[in-house]
Amino acid sequence: MKTECNTSSFHTPTPPEKYRHANFFMIHSQFHYGDAEHAQYETQGFCILDHFLTDAALTSCREHVDRMVDGVPGTAVEVMIGTHQRDQRWLWELAGEEKLLDMLERQIGPNIVLWSTHLLCKSPRTGSLVPWHQDAPFWNVSGKLSGGVWIPLDDVDEGNGTMSVLPGWHTRGALPTNARPGEIFDHEIDPEIVPDDVDERKVVYCLKAGQMATHHTMIPHSSVPNTSDRWRRLIVLRYMAADGQFGARGYTDYRTGETFPRRFFLMRGKDVNGFGLEHSPFE
């Protein structure tokens, strides 16, 4: 088992004069996705970036997430919230940050579509084992898919339910699956396909709050329950090229349980196939 950790302290530089009218920067000035990072993403299927959110943005995102988790009815403690299509402008603005789109353009080209924003939250000593799975088959999309953007709002490790990936396995195509009726993840990669030494091969995400990982939408990954006294709050953003295949899929409103159809939004570039892609859920 490999553990990807970084314990660097974070400090947000003072904004330059021309930006001091704004509340804060969202993306840290030291965020960098260059040739070395992209090469690791291409060969291994994931890459961890030391800096992503500024201190102010991290605080703001936590406040938004806590407000939304408080709005979940009942006593739910493991929450998957589909967000940007339900009046959450703050998350929409994060998903459209230019520096983030620059990274995605290196992965999938200039015509970038957002197809998913989720908050994945596990409160202390809760949560379930999420089995090994691939995102694209589960979410019914295909074509040129970017790395999912995985942004922890808390320090994460195996204790509070972080994620693990199988490096290099993003190149193996859609793997055989078994059904899991009644579960949140209704299928898993066939255990016969998962290597016997998976615990030695997997890379465990061990990140500080405000870092970011990007992992290919076809890389097998899993997560464990939160056995700690700490929260695990994180944001996941997913994108694809505008010439991909947009399968139907319903999302659930976290407040009402209502199912609503997924929409696809053109974040940069052209609607190359003339699908009539929307530019914003707020227009």
Largest sheet: 7 strands, antiparallel
**Uncertain parts:** 6-23
Query: Under CATH, the topology is which?
Result: Jelly Rolls
CATH class: Mainly Beta
Record the SSE blueprint.
Layout lengths: L1 E4 L29 H10 L1 E4 L5 H16 L7 E5 L6 H7 L2 H11 L3 E11 L7 E4 L1 H5 L1 E2 L4 E6 L10 E3 L11 E3 L7 E3 L8 H4 L1 E4 L5 E5 L4 E3 L8 E10 L3 E2 L3 E3 L6 E3 L3 E4 L15
Parallel strand pairs: 1-11
Antiparallel strand pairs: 2-12, 3-4, 4-14, 4-18, 5-13, 6-15, 7-12, 7-14, 8-11, 8-13, 9-10, 16-17
Name the descriptors.
18 strands; 7-stranded antiparallel sheet; single chain; 283 residues; alpha+beta; Jelly Rolls; 5-stranded mixed sheet; globular
Would you give an account of this structure?
It is a single chain. This protein is an alpha+beta fold and 283 residues long. It has one domain (25-268): Jelly Rolls (Sandwich), CATH 2.60.120.620. It has 6 helices and 18 strands. The protein has helices at residues 35-44, 55-70, 89-95, 98-108, 135-139, 198-201; strands at 2-5, 46-49, 78-82, 112-122, 130-133, 141-142, 147-152, 163-165, 177-179, 187-189, 203-206, 212-216, 221-223, 232-241, 245-246, 250-252, 259-261, 265-268. The strands form 5 sheets. Strands 2, 3, 4, 7, 12, 14 and 18 form a 7-stranded antiparallel beta sheet that branches. A 5-stranded mixed beta sheet has the order 1-11-8-13-5, with no helix packed on it. Strands 6-15 form a two-stranded antiparallel sheet. The protein is globular. Mean pLDDT is 85; it is low at 6-23.
